[in-house]
Amino acid sequence: ALTRFGRAACPATSYTFMTAINNFLQDQYDAIWATAQTAFDQGAPSLDARLPAKTEDRRRSATLLIRPGAAVAARVAATLAELRPLEPAQYYYHPDELHVTVLSLWTGTEQPEPFFAQMPVYRAAIAAVLCNWPSFSLRFDGLTASPAAVLVQGYPTGLQLNDLREALRAAITAAGLGHTLDQRYRISTAHMTALRFCRPLQDLPRLAAALQARRSCDFGVTNVAEIQLVENDWYMSRDRVRVLHRYPLT
Fold this sequence. Notes:
The chain contains six helices and nine strands. The strands form two sheets. The protein has a five-stranded antiparallel sheet. A four-stranded antiparallel sheet has the order 3-1-8-9. The chain is an alpha+beta fold. The longest helix has 31 residues, at 11-41.
């Protein structure tokens, strides 16, 4: 996790720390890409069998997230429009569904009621952290892929996202709910999922080549002025997401 870098103490150290974070993120995205390439070479992408009938999926969670700015979302949508004719049967995210997960309060479950019953505790801890949190920016540059999905690579332009996640984890843990966090994995990147594989692919080598050609595609910068707390399904479907609270950043 990014916490292994510690906390920057002065501007010069902040620059070094920021460089370390971005190098770490690039290593993460490159490792994800390498895993996908192995799966693609073997003709064995990971297909989400639940996705074609996702309306039957009862898994629910609550998530703190960032929505990309309109210009970034439009550039991602244009890139997906270029990819869609290659593999039209896959699941392409609508611009309204694109997001960066700041923190998932718990892993999506078909029995979310006990977690939602604790929402006042979660919200008090979150509000204490976000009441005076400064705005920050995220840069989106290039695509990567896992065996299951295509991702937009995101990079923080400052230290705030890493610090925010750590502050939220500390506050929620202090409130007695830390055991519900990071159950699948400890999130450290700033990616956006843009495409999920859900049906057999028509021409996997052709798609892999198209993704390779877009590994360094500039999608722009988003100024993060708001964090949303939402109730969501597994896929962050726009017709199944309910905004519980909006936290403006200072």
